[in-house]
Each structure stands twice: as structure tokens, then as C-alpha cells.
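Researcher: Structure for this, please.
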Amino acid sequence: MGLTLGEGGTPLVEATALSDELRMRVFLKCEGLNPTGSFKDRGMAVAVGRAAERQAHTVVCASTGNTAASAAAYAARAGLRSVVLTPQGATASAKRAQARAAGACVLELAGSFDDALRCCRELAERDGFALVNSLNPDRIEGQASVVAEVLEQLGATPDVIALPYGGGGNTCAVARGLDEAGVVSRIVAGEAAARSTTWASAIRIGEPAHAQEVEELRQQGRVDVQTLSEEEIGAAWRELATREGVFCEPASAAGLAALRRTGSGGVAVCILTGHGLKDADAVAEEDAPVVQATIDAILAAVA
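Model: Predicted structure, C-alpha cell format:
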């Protein structure tokens, strides 16, 4: 067995309330239940494992958070050093904490994600360093496994697979997974209109690394890219929690928001890429009201 932390095998949950609203059967692929809380683990197990096989001593990545946490964990598992570059002030604190806990050298750059990725690519040209962003094809290979799982769990081919579009690696991975399975599904990818500043920090990427590949898939009629407002992403995120009980990080809801625009019957699978606890700061802090320890006081408070 290769490098693993038990990634994959995440639940596929039918979203009954949303299905009624959208007039199609909607399923949620809960990738936040991977070992480090996001879909990145599927690809990172392959990428870091192969880096170790090639005698790398350090893995490097640019990250808005989830890649950092995943790279750090799998590097620790493989006995490698990890270096993580994040844009200053642009990543959720829980994700930075995960990476630091696993022993990563986490550096905040005075620049954008695109600056961080450029620096990582330069580092990876040095002996012993391996880039584990999705530009590494091993990442795409590992992430494509989500499609085979969906097909097995659903027992059929969905009409639509919806997911967020940040860097575009996962969109390319889903397309690859469909090709490997020999099936056809429409891919709906939701990106933030405010790419460089979006509240949905996991897709806060101004220049998608896989923009050209996604555009080719779009021109082939395989991918429908929907550009979303902050309000649309936020509404979908709140609805997943309050109507379906599924707490995901804000970026994960971009697939549902995109599906809401394009839904046309049939069966849809929304890939929820990260757990809500990855970005708990997105939930507005409100102090719980203090009431007397009596039933009358409690009933008055909940009325």
C-alpha cells in the first residue's frame, strides 16, 4: 500500500430539501470528511508518496489553506519536510494551525496566491524539492478517484457534477475521472466574481493555474463555468447547513450556487470540498443569551 491516511470513502448524502426546491435529485459528496478535512487529501497522498519515492527531502506548495494542511500532514507521514507559502492575511486560521501542527514551515508572503505559486515553482527547480500543488499531475490523478466513488455509491452516472472553481485542478480531475470511467456527465463549476478578494477564501485565486485546461473543457461543451456573486455563494452555504445539516466551508457551496443557476432536472452531485470547521471564522460570532435556569425563562427565550 502506498502513502495513506485513510483518504477517500467519503459519504454521498441525498439532499432532500434542496432536491424538492431545485426539482432534481441532489446528492452531496462530503469531501470534508477526508483526513485533513478537504478533498486535497486524495491527490496529496499520491503526490507526496511519489515525491518520497523520487528521493525528495522537501515538499513545497502555495496555498489558500487546504493544500497547506494536506501537504503538511502527508509530508509528516512520509517523513519529509514541508514548506508552505500563503498569501498574507488570506487564509483561514484553522488551516494554518493544521499545517503548523504537522510541522510545516508556514510562511506568509507579502503578495497574492499567484506570487506564492511562482515562488514555489522556482523552489521546486532545486534538487530535493517537490512541488505538490495541482500543477503536479500526480495530484490530478489522485483527485480523479472521487468520480469512481460517486459512480459506485450512486449506482448510476449523474447528469451533473457541480463543484467550486478556484485553481481549476479539481475540475480537471473530475473530467479525467469521467474519461477513465467512460461515462459522460455535465460539469458545472462555480467561481467567485471577486476572485482575488472573495469571502470564500479557499477559492481566492486571481489567476487559476488550470485556466487554459478548464477553458478547453468549456469549449468542448463539457464544463459550464458560472461566475457567482458573494451573495449567491453565501446563500448556498447557509442553506446547506440550515436545510440539510451539512456544514461546509464557504467555497464548497459554490458548486451548489452554480447548480441553482443551471439545474435542469435529472440527478446532480455537488462536491463539497472542505469541512466547515476549516473556516469556522466565517460564521458570525454571536454571544448566546444568558437566561435563568428555569423552564419559563427558557421557553420565553425560544419563543
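Researcher: Any notable elements?
Model: The chain has two domains: 12-38+139-282, 40-136. The chain has a mean pLDDT of 94.
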